[in-house]
Amino acid sequence: MFVVNLTQAQQEPAGDVKTVQETAKNYMKQGDYSNAVLVLNRALQSNADNLELQKDLTFAYYLNRDYVHALEVAQKFPDRQDADVQSFQLLGMVYKAIEEVKDCEKMYKAALKKFPNSGTLYSEYGEMKYTKKDYAEAIKIWEKGIESDPGYSGNYYNAAKHYYFTTDKVWGLIYGEIFVNLESYSKRTAEIKNVLLDGYKKLFSDVNLTKDQDTKNEFVKAYFDIIKSQSSFIGSNGVTPETLSAVRTKFILDWYAKNATRFPFRLFEYQQQLLKAGMFDAYNQWVFGTAANLPAYENWTKTHQEEYNKFDYFQHNRVFKLPAGQYYQSVK
């Protein structure tokens, strides 16, 4: 019965494309890429120019590691007037798989001319550069992605990791925390929480916090002018969720007394909002607790159940959005 219905669906004209796509996607979820390819190719016989079917077919070929056929379909995307960001994204994936670096870079440049505010394209273009060890160019691309599309999480993820492995002490923390608020419950979130905790350890590891830092950048200078006075909170206790909560509480209070008008910044506004609502300690436990000591964090949630539940409910029901125009980085 299923086979008969499927055949009938594929003989339908364009109207039943979504049904065919769903069938193919179910095959892909099951790892049956050959059947997904079969379904999509048959559908394309009567819908030859359907971009959505072609994109799905490219992806099915890609998952099946049939890069020759994937490229055969996807390399036509840039010439289409209706080509969207996902079309270029898929072609980029295929180019990366077959290591066609020159064609891939040419494609990304053309795609970004058509979609200059696509965080997705900046993120993946930067990743291509990074895999080729062109780190300086990669971070420039990710920074451009952050500036152009501040609501897309991928560029913050990549930039935070990049800065963590450099001498920089500020932007890895800033971008990492923005990332965990944009993408709060993924495997990458747990990874970046570790980066944040270690990043604060790096920040306070030297008595001279500003050593090797870009204090010509006015935002960075303002950050250090405040954070360096908070070192006493660390004291002999080290960097823990509790000491960081104390440091960051005082930081936000001082920032809003001195820099809020000069540097409006959504991340700090959010921290201030949590502080006023009595949820900032819980938030700091959420950011740093699992990375620092999971059993201790779990115990904290039990001994501060009301506080934890209040924050957890809020966290799951809020949308963290970043406005345009709050970009203060200056990449050399």
UniProtKB/TrEMBL annotation:
SUPFAM superfamilies: TPR-like (SSF48452). This is Uncharacterized protein. Pfam families: TPR_16 (PF13432). The keyword Transport does not apply. InterPro entries: TPR-like_helical_dom_sf, TPR_rpt. It comes from Niastella vici. TPR repeats lie at residues 17-50, 119-152. The keyword Zinc does not apply. Keywords: TPR repeat.
